[in-house]
Amino acid sequence: DQQVKQNSPSLSVQEGRISILNCDYTNSMFDYFLWYKKYPAEGPTFLISISSIKDKNEDGRFTVFLNKSAKHLSLHIVPSQPGDSAVYFCAASVARGAQKLVFGQGTRLTINP
Amino acid sequence: NAGVTQTPKFQVLKTGQSMTLQCAQDMNHNSMYWYRQDPGMGLRLIYYSASEGTTDKGEVPNGYNVSRLNKREFSLRLESAAPSQTSVYFCASSEPGQPQHFGDGTRLSIL
């Protein structure tokens, strides 16, 4: 049972435009959500997070939106840059301090010049 | 500033062989984790250690054992490797309430 789903395996966006990556979850106990970015042959690196008490969190070019009623979150990257080309994973836990993260399958983002 | 260091980076094993994957972190984090990543799937938690001296099962613990050797080191052991354990293994560490920091992974192939 996939509790966290990223239904788009890949996404291609033109440089300078907005990239929108989506993530759905099924477990209503999830309370804290994170996005990680992964380059080939490297480990995932933390990008941005959001707690369920918020519906938006922004950090520079990256904004995460959370829709609790729809059990959906999205990551917006504006403007997209070539260095943003990577695999993006969303992850969820039942609390910010919880040890167990559940990851989605990942979305490969390609930024075209 | 090494962060989380995993050794080896690559390994090929034959079915039935044993192997220990090593992980060390230099960030003085209390919690450490082992994940596996398979094609088309996200990272899945194998085992974690909330603090030195404790270990707990994650989502996919079967076929693995772990040892929290000290605060810095957390090893993952395959006692009798199986082809289904072919994967990329990631170690991570964190402080409570903070994002996990990952190593660069060990790519393990079992023939």
Q: How much helix is in the residues of chain B?
A: under 10%
Helical run tally of chain A: 0
Tell me which protein chains meet in the greatest interface and how many residues each side has.
A-B, 24 and 25 residues
Radius of gyration of chain B: 13 Å
Question: How much strand of chain A?
Answer: over 45%
Low-confidence stretches of chain B: none
Provide mean pLDDT of chain A, rounded: 95
The assigned structural class of chain A equals mainly beta
How much helical structure, as a percent, in the residues of chain A? Answer: under 10%
Query: Stretches of chain A where pLDDT falls below 50 for ≥5 residues?
Result: none
**Shape annotation of chain B:** globular
From N to C, what is the helix and strand string of chain A?
Answer: EEEEEEEEEEE
Strand content of chain B: over 45%
Number of strands of chain A: 11
Please summarize the sheet with the most strands of chain A: 6 strands, mixed
Radius of gyration of chain A: 13 Å
Q: Give the oligomeric state of the chains in this entry, treating copies of one chain as homo and distinct chains as hetero.
A: heterodimer
Topology (elements, then pairings):
The complex is a heterodimer of chains A (113) and B (111).
Chain A: E1 4-5, E2 10-14, E3 19-25, E4 32-38, E5 45-51, E6 56-59, E7 62-67, E8 72-77, E9 86-93, E10 102-103, E11 107-112
Parallel strand pairs in A: 2-11
Antiparallel strand pairs in A: 1-3, 3-8, 4-5, 4-9, 6-7, 7-8, 9-10, 9-11
Chain B: E1 4-7, E2 10-13, E3 19-25, E4 31-37, E5 43-49, E6 56-57, E7 65-68, E8 74-78, E9 87-94, E10 101-102, E11 106-110
Parallel strand pairs in B: 2-11
Antiparallel strand pairs in B: 1-3, 3-8, 4-5, 4-9, 5-6, 7-8, 9-10, 9-11
